[in-house]
Amino acid sequence: MKRIIKTFFFLYFCLSAAYAQQQEKNKEEILIISSYSYESKYIYSNITKFVNEYTRLDGKYSPVVESINCLSLDERTNWMNRMKKILDKHPDAKFILLLGPEAWSCYFSLTEEKYKKIPLGCIMGQRYGATFTDNAIPSLQVADTQKQGIVDYKQVMEQFNVRFFEYYEYDTDSDYKLITRLFPSTKNIAIISDNTYLGLSEMRIVKHTLEKNYPHMNLIYINGSRMDLEEALHTTASLPENTAAILCIWRFDKKNVIYMKNAEYLFKEANNELPVFSLTGTGIGYWCIGGSIPKYNEEVGVTLAQHVYQHIDKEKKDFPVYLHRCYNEFRFDMDKLKKFNLSKEMLPDKSIYINDTTLNWKEVLHNYRWYLLLMSVVMISLIVGIIISIHYSWHIHQLKNKLMDDKKRLEDSEKELRSAKDKAEESNRLKSAFISNMSHEIRTPLNAIVGFSTILQEETKQNKNIKEYVNIISYNSDLLLKLINDILDLSRLESDKQNFNFSKTDLIPHCQNVMNSIQTSINKDTKLYFRHSTLTANAETDLTKFNQILINLIGNAAKFTREGFIELSVKPDDEAQEWVFSVTDTGCGIPSDKQKAVFERFTKLNEYVQGTGLGLAICQITVRKLGGRIWIDPEYTQGTRFMFTIPYKHIRDVEYTPDC
């Protein structure tokens, strides 16, 4: 019942996809052409895994499933017509997947160039297939002298754009050697195959190998294309002594009667003493002893989907062709080995066994050694844990009182922390009140003093003594006002109350303006340079804060440079998407152990030089608010070189974390 429901939903998906393709004729798609019915277990599994993986990769093309529904050999004349109808129905296929050798041979028979250019994926088939003397399938047609021949699909596909080819080869030679080693008296080998293209191809492969390599062995053919099931069972029952059999496949007889899995049971009842070896894996578990069979790739649908996605969705035309052979493995039925008195020692190494109920302690210890080791470690750990718990249990009572004391201390500490928190909040409130008073109660009258000092300077030009006093008042008032402004700026920056107005602008002209404004205030023996590697330096930033950074850094350089030069340079860093600025001087320099300290508040390396010790701290916070970085170049030793960056584009919500 589950399988019927599963098949229904699968067919619904396929038909829905086909209907969508009819509604959108120009829509490109991935066309999946199966040789057999969708109900086949392996067909369904591979298509489902392909569709699921391709969907997981978010592929943009729609997979559409069609079938040429190949049954017996008698109706092979219809296969080509079905293939052409499918291709005419889907003219916009971006990639075609061919499942099974019947689909391969029909497509490889096409002569139009457009079909040779479409990328193909071929799976679920053997490398060698049977040929015919008629022209029903042109790629399989041969002359009369080759009517018993086989075709190599690896050679046929060279004329087409095959991008994915996974195949398997039947190892008849290994099966023959296995038969003669286990049953050395074998004189006849019966080859059992049905009336399908797979059965004919497998029979041809076995026949070709045995006649070429072991011509002395007598071959008996139980051929479904020439016998019905009753005749085949009679032939099997009357096989001569010293005969072994190789089972290919049996689904159709010459009357086109279909048999799924019950045919092998009927063969078993017809001759239960016949040692039978499987070429394809069919019959192992209830009739066949075993054999060398292909290791069928159950994940080929996943691998194929990944390859198709890279080729058509990612458009990697140079993506390498996937060419893979499924290698063989030996598989045996333990019940049949016991029936024929065969032991594992007589069989190849690394063989796989089914229906194996014997308990091999060596294998158990080898396969489960890590689990046994883990269990031993767990048991030892439990025993040690019990001993330790008993040893320390008497401490629990003593620790209880200590824990109560610790709890009391923690409560007292919590009270102290709350009190300290309240005091810190009060201190912060007082600091805010002080800064507010500084802004309104100190800076306002100080601005008046500065203003009137400027007026007095104009009025006392003739009196040198009074002018000198007035100049002192004005100079120190300016210093005090700058200190207050710096403190207020630093407070606003740290409390996120400073507004930043970001806009797109060219920084080169503004750099030039700052250089021109500072030119008059530097020492006459100091040269001022501005170098830029680009004509423009477009960035999204706050121009006022940017100018403040330049004025502070170049002003600092001017204070400590008596002769030599001061250079401002700017260059782009496209990888980091930012502009890199540097202010270089030939002054006294900053020792390497002090290069981080200069960015701390109220830090002055030279107490005899005017300044508040806040300029670099403000620069550091401002640069970070603008989304950049600031540092001192440790490799420059001819003076000092400050470097900072401004991003090309402002990144919103940049958080500032002060250095502690």
UniProtKB/TrEMBL annotation:
Q: Where in the cell is it found?
A: Membrane
Q: Which residues form the signal peptide?
A: 1-20
Looking up SMART domains in the UniProt record yields: HATPase_c (SM00387), HisKA (SM00388)
Residue ranges of the Histidine kinase domain? 437-650
The EC designation for this entry is 2.7.13.3
In terms of one coarse class, where is the protein primarily found?
membrane
Protein name as annotated: histidine kinase
Lineage of source species: Bacteria, Pseudomonadati, Bacteroidota, Bacteroidia, Bacteroidales
